[in-house]
Design a protein that fits this description.
- The protein is α/β, with parallel strands linked by helices.
- It has 18 helices and 13 strands.
- The longest helix is centred in the last third of the chain and has 30 residues.
């Protein structure tokens, strides 16, 4: 009793142990490391207790809701994927055959949860269905028919979107009529009917955000384009959201970064903190760049990510709690050297172009670090992987482990959002914690995504079954993983010599993502 009384007095007078006593429930939208483990790892560096369900529940909405209801009374905040709770995850949200009555009942569960937990800080994120530009046979992330008809479906919706906001010329009208004949009616009926159901569920979640049943709700539009069905549906949502302030809900061009951003917002709200962020783009088009897989300028996306994280933008780096440098292309391009099969190879001219760009940005980063500013880097010039020219410059200048955070994985907004969240929280971390998080990013984004994955993809492209193996290892998994680990160790020995005890595996049994496992 005396011990508990003394602890209580210590907390009252000093605030000590507050963070370690606070619990945040976290329900990711799938079990990929970037979606589930890595955001948790960042927040745990601050001493918060993150409680997540067993990963096998993520595809079982009814059991997941039971877990959520059981654990919510003991948490201070919850960051949850509405896609997991309604459809069984991000990927199932794109191909489900769930009756509308069941979807409605699952959405209504948020209302019941709020009634039973009036003081819980509840942050939710969901998605508009994406509209990939091409269909890839064997892609598990879309209905089976998208592999054959996906490109046509995208082109159809691009023209339908344009038709509503502009006029189609004669050629476009003819092409639209052709596409409507080419794509079977039953496929279009299935694809559009699912989107109607999902859009209706999203509008109900927006109502809940407006009524404070959900404290904050983010809608993501991943794998998008300036003209597409996703862009079209977002226009509908923006009209629906006219009277809902950004303090309650936001539509944004991304998805995989929201776990990190909303966990950051939860921490900031629990602390009563509103951090400030200054953003500096590389030369040229900079903030006006519309990256691949997005329908808006990156400057707008980053501004909104700062808001999602519970922070504010500032106009001077000296006033910022965190300074984010963004590596964009001067001409506003997104390059796909690491994100194609087989990978594209840089020409000598391109190598010089990238090196010139990297040197200019590195000089600015070094200057900011010399001024003792808390600096992070979002590397978005290349889709899904680091810019080797920039990384080599940062390494040569011995700046890699002077940063607060780094990101270079997946789409541009995935990268900027994860880097923003981590960089904002890094202010309260030890240098050891920061370096651990940096090590993970360098191994994942630089070593694996930009180099090892690229090299293996090049090797596989010479095999007749190479693309199939790239998308799904199957019986070749042991061979591929052994090759990955050999190349990763070799890369680390040459470029990250302090990093030794780790292994690599692929939880989704494909080349696109990896999991770095440290052996402490």
């Amino acid at each position: 009793m005396l011990k508990n009384f003394l602890i209580a007095l210590l907390i009252i007078f000093t605030g000590t142990a507050q963070a370690s006593a606070e619990k945040i429930l976290f329900i990711p939208h799938d079990n990929r490391p970037v979606s589930s483990q890595q955001p948790v790892e960042v927040v745990e560096q601050l001493g918060y207790k993150i409680i997540s369900p067993p990963l096998e529940l993520l595809t079982k909405p009814n059991e997941l809701w039971a877990w959520f209801n059981e654990n919510a009374p003991f948490a201070d905040a919850a960051v949850v994927s509405s896609d997991a709770l309604i459809y069984g995850g991000l990927i199932p949200s794109r191909s489900h055959q769930i009756d509308n009555d069941i979807l409605t009942a699952r959405v209504e569960n948020f209302k019941t949860l709020r009634e039973n937990n009036p003081n819980l800080r509840l942050y939710a994120f969901g998605s508009l269905m994406r509209t990939p530009k091409v269909g890839t046979p064997g892609d598990r992330e879309e209905p089976d028919y998208y592999g054959e008809y996906g490109t046509n479906i995208f082109q159809l919706t691009r023209l339908l979107d344009k038709q509503e906001i502009d006029k189609l010329n004669k050629t476009e009208k003819t092409y639209l009529e052709l596409l409507e004949r080419i794509i079977p009616d039953e496929i279009l009926d299935d694809w559009f009917a699912r989107r109607v159901k999902n859009l209706s569920a999203t509008e109900k979640l927006l109502d809940f955000a407006n009524d404070a049943i959900i404290n904050y709700f983010v809608i993501g539009r991943d794998d998008n384009a300036p003209l597409s069905q996703t862009h079209r549906e977002n226009r509908i949502l923006l009209n629906y959201m006219q009277n809902i302030p950004n303090a309650k809900a936001l539509s944004h061009a991304g998805i995989d970064e929201y776990a990190m951003l909303l966990l950051t917002r939860a921490v900031n709200d629990l602390r009563g903190s509103v951090p400030s962020v200054y953003v500096k783009f590389n030369r040229g088009k900079g903030e006006k760049t519309i990256p691949a897989y997005s329908d808006e300028p990156i400057g707008i996306s980053i501004r909104d990510e700062i808001i999602i994280a519970g922070a504010i933008p500032v106009s001077k780096p000296e006033r910022a709690d965190f300074v984010l440098f963004v590596n964009t292309d001067p001409k506003g391009n997104t390059f796909h050297f690491h994100n194609s099969f087989p990978p594209q190879t840089l020409t000598k001219k391109q190598e010089k172009y990238f090196m010139k760009n990297a040197k200019k940005l590195t000089a600015q980063i070094e200057d900011a670090l010399n001024k003792n500013l808390p600096v992070g880097v979002a590397d978005v010039i290349i889709a899904n992987g680091s810019d080797n020219a920039l990384m080599n410059q940062l390494s040569d200048k011995h700046l890699l482990f002077k940063l607060q955070t780094y990101g270079g994985w997946n789409t541009a907004t995935n990268t900027t959002g994860f880097a923003l969240g981590t960089g904002i929280l890094a202010k309260k971390m030890s240098r050891k914690s920061i370096n651990r998080l940096l090590t993970r990013r360098y191994l994942d984004d630089w070593a694996y995504q930009a180099n090892v994955r690229t090299q293996i993809a090049e090797e596989l492209s010479k095999r007749p079954d190479g693309l199939a193996i790239y998308l799904n290892f199957g019986e070749h998994e042991a061979e591929i993983v052994e090759r990955e680990n050999f190349l990763m160790r070799d890369f680390a020995k040459k470029n990250l010599p302090r990093v030794k005890n780790f292994t690599v595996k692929n939880p989704w049994h494909r080349m696109f993502e990896c999991e770095i496992v440290f052996r402490d």
